[in-house]
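Hello,

Following up on my earlier ticket. Below are the three sequence lines again, exactly as submitted.
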Amino acid sequence: MSNSPLLELEGISLSFKGVKAISDIGFSVAEGEICALIGPNGAGKSSLLNVINGVYRAQQGRIRFAGQQRRVMHPHAAARGGIARTFQNIALFKGMSVLDNVLTGRNLKRRSSWLEQALRIGRAPGEDDRQRAAAERVIEFLRIQPWRDEIVGTLPYGLQKRVELARALAAEPRLLLLDEPMAGMNAEEKREMSRFIVEINREFGMTVVLIEHDIGVVMGISHHVVVLDYGRKIGDGSPEQVRRNPDVIAAYLGVRPAAASGLFPHRSATWHSFSKC
Amino acid sequence: MAFFFEVLIGGLLAGVMYSLVAIGFVLIYKASGVFNFAQGAMVLFAALTFVSLLERGVPFWLSFLVTLATMIALALLIERAVLRPLVGRSPITLFMATLGLAYIIEGVAQALWGAQVHGLELAISDAPLALGGLLLSQFDLFAAATAAALVVLLSLLFNRTRIGLALRAVADDPRAAMSVGIRLPRVWAVVWAVAGFVGLVAGLLWGARLGVQFSLSLVVLKALPVLIIGGFTSISGAIVGGLIIGASEKLAEVYLGPLIGGGIENWFPYVLALLFLLVRPAGLFGERAIERV
Amino acid sequence: MLYREAGQFSVRYADDRRFFRLRQDRLGLAALVLFAFIGVPLLGNDYWFSAILIPFLLLSLAGLGLNLLTGYAGQLSLGSAAFMAVGAFAAYNFELRVAWLPLLASLLLGGLVAALVAVVFGLPSLRIKGFYLLVSTLAAQFFVPWTLTRFSWFSNDSASGVISAPPLLMAGYDFSSPAGRYLLTLAVVSALFWLGANLVRSELGRNWMAVRDMDTAAAVIGIPLLKTKLLAFAISGFYLGVAGSLWAFTYLGTVEPHGFDLNRSFQILFIIIIGGLGSILGNFLGAAFIVLFPVLLSNLAGLLPTGLIDAGQIENLQKMAFGTLIIIFLIKEPEGLARLWQRFRERTRRWPLRH
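Thanks for your patience. The regenerated structure is below:
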């Protein structure tokens, strides 16, 4: 593990038609760590992820990834540089099978031209086998073999999320961005997904940045937590540090800890799960 | 110089006719998100119904009312048989359905009334009127006035009546409209009926100008560049777009034609719309869709 | 039920990638191909070759061309006939003006020219999405026939732009008899279909479907949108160009620009809607339907008392029937005849069991 962080954000500001979504955010993600982005809804977490892999362009700020400093990231550069991601509303290719979706994740690993593939000559046949083998490894790892030939649009939600993760993994990325990978899952599915993420990190040394609402999961699997609220960073550190940060507590409860009462009961509930971990 | 203005104004007035057809499109697109390829066929159908009634000696106003009733019936039928089963499908699917619809309507129209041209007399002479040193067609002026009246009528409908409010609600967010109790099928039926009415007016004017014949349904294709320039969701855009297309088409024909060959007006509007799209993908007045990932 | 499928497993990935995994299916295909190449020329008559089989094959090819662009890559196009026209006139000019070019080379070059023109009209697809893209291909559909008529060089200075087929000589054999034209068409169509089937299962085919299903996600995972879309237009244009050339050379014999009008584009669009978007088999089924349906209708009309339905009315009935069928297919079976066939096959495989 090198000393310099894999990903470094500096002074990122993003606005849409005058509405500021992100204000002056900066943090670093070390190689090989799991970093969780948390915060109330609308805090700008998904937008931040979009800035990291180039879907949105920040008006201000810089991104440094794998030693390369950029003013702005382009989606294609991000993909080629080794950033893969999943989306909040599943962005799978609904008309294709699971296997085909996973294979598209490997499109940057191809060397043969389309003509070679069409005529089935040259580098194409051997490469087809290698691509298939790599895809199968990912499919096996995420245990989705039974649905290999199913059209993705027909699968249940939880499975689609796993296929999307498979597609991201198939690209053998250095940095994996996961946008609410456990949204809409029950407790058992969440445990399984958590295990996958931890295994991905430990077995393959993949750096993971994930957005997640379930504080229990966040506390349990992350090395590093960054807290956002109203587009600003209000906490940054280990899970322990963040848990004790008064600004973070205030953001979740709406009031300072001393005055915590039944004023915002739903926020208190989140706080309780926070403090229980 | 006067010649240039005559061509320009002639083009503008011709453009008004395009706008009339485009307005029908905008209505339907606004309320149901469907690009109604069958609009041209509906225009043709309306004109044919009207003309055949006239030819059988039915008085003008009665023919108009009967045709209007027929168009409304057609609209209701379309809503029931085609739109309702295809709710929620992709825009391309809906477009292809209206393509099929256009074929059906054309086939029926031709089967009932044959393929020959019918003359249509609207008692407005085409004699030129001298205005400020320019010669303008009376007919074109009448058409422009009709279009203006139609726009006023439609704005009143949309902004001053309850059903207009419902139409605007559905155009904005169909699900939200449903949840406050607005009945979508009824709204769609109204919209298609109004579009049918607009189609009838357009059909009468075009028919009087060109004779009621099958090339009328090709007018729909000219409406596409109009909509691209003016945006698919704006009536004022349809007017402006129509004017631009009409004027540029005429000017191109007169000034560019001798240089590169006649018959330019067949493709010029499309190339113009294409260039326009490259600069402004949502048209002059249209809404820019923000894609949420 | 018809044959035993058990025991046939794919052991290598290459086996899994075959068009037909079951040995019986492959034998069936081989038999069909054999029959088409050998049986049909021996058994068929001139009417069948000239009026049914050749247009069927060429419309299937044109359907495949449009299907690659619209069904697989999701780029809507109403300009198919224009690209066919480009191919036809380009091939004609190559044959005419470059005397030493063999026939197949002219066909190939005609296709390449059509591919180039298609790319030009496809460039807007990089900025414009979905529906608005129609305007670009419509522009092509109106611009191309105008150009071909206006500049008589294209038609070797003939009045109204008519061109006629060159002698169909290949490797010393004369293919101008109906059976000969059929075989030439069959050979070209088979080769291009084989290529096309490989393409749609390759990386490019997957990229096309990705762009069709969600192009922002496709860009994010590294698929080059520019190259993918333009290749779709180019390859589609190539297929349509070759189909157009053969349409002029082996089917009609003479053709003018207005034979490749908007109605023809609609016809090809109907073929792929009815046959099935994003399917290979669907092109054949859709083309068969389009070619045979009018024949069926006029035969039916012939059964009724004479004078009840005349020829003009048949055309109207056809229009109405096509329109109705499109709507029915879109409502009931959006994946067209290909899907219906697939369901039928599944049923027969399981019969007499239900599931």
